[in-house]
Structure formats: C-alpha cells, structure tokens
Amino acid sequence: MEADEPMSRRIQRLNVLFREELATIIRTELRDPRLAELISIIRVDVSPDLENADVHISIMAEPEEQVDSMKTLDRAAPFLRRELLHRVTIRKVPQLKFHLDHTIEQAAHVLDLMKQVEKLPKAE
Fold first, then answer.
1. Pairing of strands 95-100, 52-59
2. 114-57-78 Cα angle (round to 5)
3. How far apart are CA 93 and CA 106, in angstroms?
4. pTM over 0.90
5. How far is CA 24 from each of CA 30, 41, 100, 102, rounded to the nearest angstrom?
6. How far is the C-alpha of 73 from the C-alpha of 77, rounded, in Å?
C-alpha cells in the first residue's frame, strides 16, 4: 500500500499540472475559429502507466458549437502533447483524450431553477 502512495501523489500532481498547462495552451496558442469562447478544463485524469490522459472539458455554447469545439480539440491533440512536452519536465506525455463534461451546465440550470422557485408566491 505504501508503495502506491508516491505514485498516486505523482499522478495527482500531474493531473493538476496538465490541467493548468492545457488551459493556458488552449487559451493562448490555439487560434481556431471553431473553438467556443468559453472552454474550461474541469479535470485531467492521467492513467497510472502515464499512457493516457482523459481531459474533461466544459464548453458553454450551443450543442453544435460544443461538437465543433470537441472535434477541434481532438484534432489539436498532437499539437497540445508537443506543447506539454516543451513545458513540463517529463519523459513522456500521455495521449490526450477529450470528454465533454456537462457539470457546469447542470449546475447553472439548477441555479436558474432555484431562482425561479424564489420568485414564486409564498404559500401562507
């Protein structure tokens, strides 16, 4: 059990580091008009063998624009990996796989519903 702890801490650090670096690269280096304006990286999950990284993305846009943005990110994955290799001191950068995450949209919807309930007349 103790042998796994340093590796899991390392993976956790890589998850955070990749999330921060990918957010910066996407914001500053990708200049594709098919990318939506509001893209957030929710989390990155690097596999223990460092072969793959699941990148969970939230895109605040219409469904068609979300699909276009996800396709653009998938096509940009090799570029993003190369940029990570230049920015992060690591021998091997994992393959990036992007997943659309609806958590922020769902939270915004719940907040809207709560605001609507507040506006309803109170029963006495």
1. parallel
2. 170
3. 32
4. no
5. 10, 10, 18, 21
6. 6
Residue 35 per-residue DSSP state = S
Q: Which residue in the block uniquely carries the two structure tokens 């091997």? A: 92
- Model confidence at 109, pLDDT cuts 50, 70, 90, reads confident
| Alpha-carbon span 18 to 90, nearest angstrom | 11
Is the pLDDT score of 19 beyond 80? Answer: yes
- Please report the domains of the chain, with CATH numbers, ordered by start residue: 4-119 (3.30.300.20)
What are the residues facing 55 on neighbouring strands?
Answer: 44, 98
Per-residue pLDDT tens digits for 52-94: 999 999 998 899 999 999 999 999 999 999 999 999 988 889 9
Q: At what angle do helices 4-28 and 63-87 cross, to 10 degrees?
A: 120
Token reading at 59: 């895109």
